[in-house]
Amino acid sequence: MKYAVILCDGMADLPVDELGGKTPMSAAKKPFMDSLAAKSEVGLVKTVADNLKPGSDVANLSVLGYDPAIYYSGRSPLEAGSIGIDMKSTDVSLRCNLVTVSDEENYEDKTLIDYCADDISTEEARIIIEFIQEKLGNESFSYYAGVSYRHCLIWDKGTTDLGTLTPPHDITGKPVKGHLSTSDNAKPLIEMMKKSYDLLKSHPINLERIKKGKRPANSIWFWGEGTRKPLKPFFEKYGKKGAMISAVDLLKGIGKFTDMQVINVDGATGYIDTNFDGKVNSGIKVLKNGSDFVYIHVEAPDECGHRHEIQNKVKSIELIDEKILKPLLDAFKDEDLRILICPDHPTPLSLRTHTNDPVPYLIYDSRKKLEGVENFNEDSAKSTGIFIEKGHELMDRFLSE
After folding, report:
1. Which one of 176, 211, 226 terminates a domain?
2. Are 268 and 247 spatial neighbours (Cβ–Cβ below 8 Å)?
3. Residue 396: helix, strand or coil by DSSP?
4. DSSP code, position 90
5. Full residue range of the structural domain in which residue 190 is found
6. Is residue 77, in this structure, part of any structural domain at all?
7. Pair 231, 66: CB distance under 8 Å
8. Which of 127, 257, 276, 346 could form a disulfide with 12 if both were Cys (CB 3.0 to 4.6 A apart)?
């Protein structure tokens, strides 16, 4: 038996007026998901408890079977591990986004225009992060470049008692005021954010981006603080040899810390222009070559939700159906295969951020034909009456024979 998870990040949503009152899942033409839904177990799962922040860190740990109440210590340590940072027990890591803010003189009066600086390229971002390290790095603070807008700060002998560090995707288009931590412990972080604007507003990379009509990466933004916490190896936990395929450092970090094989795919961007073919071909190859389990994470629906890109969110779901699910089914049409399809959390277009509402899931087993639903979406999943209250129990259900 082979096991494949297709994790459609942020796919779940609320009804959208522009889609005739449908959600993107309902509106999308996804014949392969829907054909599986008709003969599979379909239900709802609560991946993020009400007392936890609905981030992809908590939600993906949950889907993978790791109870966040036990294993979660913050998002950034997972990302730090992915980019090769060997954190000490006394280190605190923080996600460092490259963002676009407006040009008011006082930082507090600025608006956060774009949480990802127009999807800045990894090459451009690396130059900027190295510049920031040169200007702001010291014995206590070290900056490390990641992918696109996602980077990492390591604070030697730091603290996680920092008040509230707001994720920038939660306040896109909103004033910065009221979203800067007032904790004394966070003062050096806020000060570096303010200094970064003065350093970056005239950086050659940004002047060239503005010239090309792109948004500048004119500020850093900290959030997602945490300390390193060990994760039990996936094979030790489930007896399955696993692999992780994702464009984002967070998922690669989870894969690394759970001793999965982490597969890097050229052209995997984390957006709708990602290399879908490369991802699924890598997944098929790793399963054919001895792995039991593959986790194919697709970020595109989440990014579209954050950006309020209605049609692109629908399209991203259709591309997952056509370019990930169909080839996977074709490749294993003569073999025993179980597939889990689900989002990690909702990213409603109307809110442009995550929620911790339950999400629909589908478990398909090629050996069985169950009574399912006609269309795989939020309402049809609810209609079955199947509800998994503790998200980390979903993986046990999926891997059970």
Report:
1. 226
2. yes
3. helix
4. T
5. 82-226
6. no
7. yes
8. 346
